[in-house]
UniProtKB/TrEMBL annotation:
<dbReference type="Pfam" id="PF23719">
    <property type="entry name" value="VapB"/>
</dbReference>
<dbReference type="InterPro" id="IPR014447">
    <property type="entry name" value="VapB-like_prob"/>
</dbReference>
<protein>
    <submittedName>
        <fullName>Transcription regulator of the Arc/MetJ class</fullName>
    </submittedName>
</protein>
C-alpha cells in the first residue's frame, strides 16, 4: 500500500494560502503511508515528465487536519517517490486547527 487512503476532494476548510505562503513553511519528512490523497486521478504525462517540478514547488503540500495528513498538491511527486522504493517524502505541512 502506498497511501493511507485515496480520497477525492478536500474535506478540510479552505486555508487560503498562496504559493508564496507555502514557500515559508519549511519541509519535513512525511511517510507516504500516512497520507490521504485529495485527488483520485492522475496524468501519466505529468508523472513521467522529466521537468514535472520545473514550474512548481519542489516539495508537495500537505494539510494536517483533525489528526490526518492530506496530500493537497504533489501526487505525482509522491508516486514517483514510491516508484523509486522510497517510503518517506519531504513535504511542506500546514497544520490547521
Amino acid at each position: 500500500m502506498i497511501f493511507k487512503l485515496v480520497g477525492d476532494g478536500r474535506p478540510y476548510p479552505d486555508h487560503g494560502l498562496t504559493h508564496k505562503d507555502w514557500a515559508q513553511i519549511p519541509p519535513r519528512q512525511v511517510r507516504l503511508d500516512s497520507l490521504i490523497t485529495t485527488k483520485a486521478m492522475l496524468d501519466l504525462h505529468s508523472l513521467l515528465a522529466a521537468d514535472s517540478t520545473f514550474y512548481g514547488d519542489l516539495f508537495p503540500h500537505v494539510v494536517q487536519w483533525q489528526g490526518e495528513l492530506y496530500l493537497e498538491d504533489g501526487l505525482h511527486r509522491a508516486l514517483r517517490a514510491a516508484l523509486h522504493q522510497r517510503s518517506i517524502l519531504h513535504a511542506r505541512v500546514l497544520e490547521l486547527p
